[in-house]
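Table 4 source record.
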Amino acid sequence: MTSPAPRLSPLRPFWLLLPLGILFLASLVRLVQLQVFPDPDHVGSALRNAHREARLEAPRAPLLDVDGHVLAQDAQRFRLVLDCPSQYRRHLQPAFPRSVAMAELQPIFQAAGLDPERLIPVVLDPERDRYAILAPGLSSRTARRVQELLNAVPGSGLRLEPYWERVFPQGRALGQIVGLTRVDADAHGQSRHGVFGLEQYFDAALRGQDGCKTNLVVGSQHGVNPLLRYVPAQEAPPVPTTLDAVLAVRAREELAKVMEKYRPEWVTAVVVDCVTGDLLAALALPDFDPNPGARRRTNARGEAVGVALPGLAPVHPGSTFKPFVLARALEAGVLRDGQRFSQEDGAWRLGGRVIHNAERVPGRPLSWEEVLIYSSNIGAGKIGLELGAERLRALLHDFGFWELPLLRPLEYRVGQYPGAQRWEGEQARVYTIPSVSMGHQITLTPLRLAYAYAALVNGGRLLLPRLRSDAPVVVRREVLAPDTSRRIRAALRGVAEEPERTWLPRFDDLDWGGKSGTADLRTEVAEDGYTCLFVAFGPVDEPRVVTVVVVHKPAQGGHFGSTLAGPAAARILHHAITGQDRRAGVKSLDSPRPLDMVARN
C-alpha cells in the first residue's frame, strides 16, 4: 500500500523563503536596470541627497596701471553668519543658562566690532531658523580673532563665510574709467561681473576659473561631512592697462581748480599717447569713490552723482574742429601760399544768415595760419566752402569721428552729424558747410576728439585706442601727409604763443600747441550755457601726448575755452610728458600724494 504524498505546511521553510526570494529577484533586476539603464533624474536626485557641492568663486584679477600700481583688486573678506536650526544650537538647549550663553557670545561680537546687545538676542531667538548675515566686510585679521573665539564656543550656530570684495586703491582719481562690479544671480548661484568702465571692458579677462568642493552629507547636514572632491579656484593673471595713476591724481587736482574757480556742471579730461594710442587718463568732476562702503552723492531724483564719465559722451566741439578743415584744405590744394581771407568787418552775410567773428579776431584779411591762431569763424567758413561738401564729408569719415564705437561698451554713443539732405544745394552752401567748418551742427566724444588730434599732429596716423599695455600698436589708416601735419602743428603752436594769451602757461622744458573751442548751447540745443574746450599737445616737433579738457556750463568766469579749459589742459599735458620722462629716467617728478586710499587691516 502506497503512502500519501506529503502536503506543504504554511510553516514549512519554502513558504517563508518564497517572499524573500521574490524580493531578492526584484531587487537584483532593479539593480541591473539601474546599472545598465540608469535614469539621469534618479541618479542626480540621489547624488544631491548624499552630496553637497559648493562652488568656490575665483577672485577677479587685478587691474594695473602702466607702472604697476593697482587700480582694482579683490580682497578676502568674511561674513559672520547664523546658519543652523535652533534645535541644534547649543545655547538654546533646555536648561542652558542664558547668562552663560550671553557671556560666551559677547566676546565674539566684540571681536568683530559689532554691538552685542543688538545681536545676542538674534542668536538666542528660537524662532530664528533661517540663514542670516550678521556682519559683512570683516578683514582677514578680524576674522582670525573671531574664529579663535568661535572654536572655543562650539555649537553656537555662528560661522565665518569667506567671499571676495573688490577694492580700488587709487580711489576717486580713476574711479569712473576703472568702473565697478555687481553681484547677480546666474546658473551657479551668485556671480560678479563688471557693470561699466574697464571692469566691464575686460570682464572676460578678469574672470578666473571657479573651483568646487564636494562633501558627503552626514548627520542631517550638521555632522562632520567628509570631503570627497576639491578643485581650488584659480585667479586669472593681472591685466596691465595703459592708464597712469600718478597722472590721474595730478589731472584731478587741475580739474578741481577749474570746478572751484568757474563752478561748471562738470569738467572732464582725456589724455592719450600720440605715438602708441595709449589711453593715459580719463576722468571727470564730480566723481565718486568706488570703494565698498563709501558714501556717494545723489541728486534730487535720487540718482548717483559723479558716476558717469563725460569724456565718453558726445559734446559740441566748437572751434577745436577748425584745424581738421584747414588740414584737409591743405591736402586738397585749395589753400595757396600768400592767400588771405577777408573778415568782412566781422559780419559775413551769406544767403539769409550772418556769420560773426569773436571780438578778438582782427578785422584785417588773415592767412590760413591766422584763421587758426585767432579762431576766425568767417575764415573757417570760407575755407570750408572752397573745400566743398564731398571733401568735407570725406574728412569726417577719414578721421573716424562717427564710426561704430571702438571701445564698446565703454563708448556707448558716438555723436551726431547732419543728414544727407543737409549736404545738398543751398542748404549745404549757406548753412551746413560753414557751420560744420566752425564746429557746429555736430557732436562727438572728447575721446574721439583726442584720438583725431593725435592723428592730426603725429604725422597723419589714426591710431586704434589701446587700453592694454601689452597689446600691439594698431594704425587704423593714414589720414594726412606728414608735411601737412607739420604745418598744422606749427600753426597751433601760434595759439599757445600768441602774446595776448597771458593766461596760457609757458614751460621752459616744453614747447606745446593747442586749440580752443566754445559752443553756445542756445544755438546748438536751445539750452542756456556754454561748452568750453581746449586741446593741447606737445612737444610740437615730435608730439607724444594730446590732452582734451571740457568745461560744461560754467556759472562764473566767462565762457571762452581758451581761458577756462586752456590752463588746465596745458598743465595736465606737462604732467603727462614729465611723467613719461620720469619713467625713461630723463628727469625726476615730485612724489605724488599717497595713492593708496584703502585701509589695510
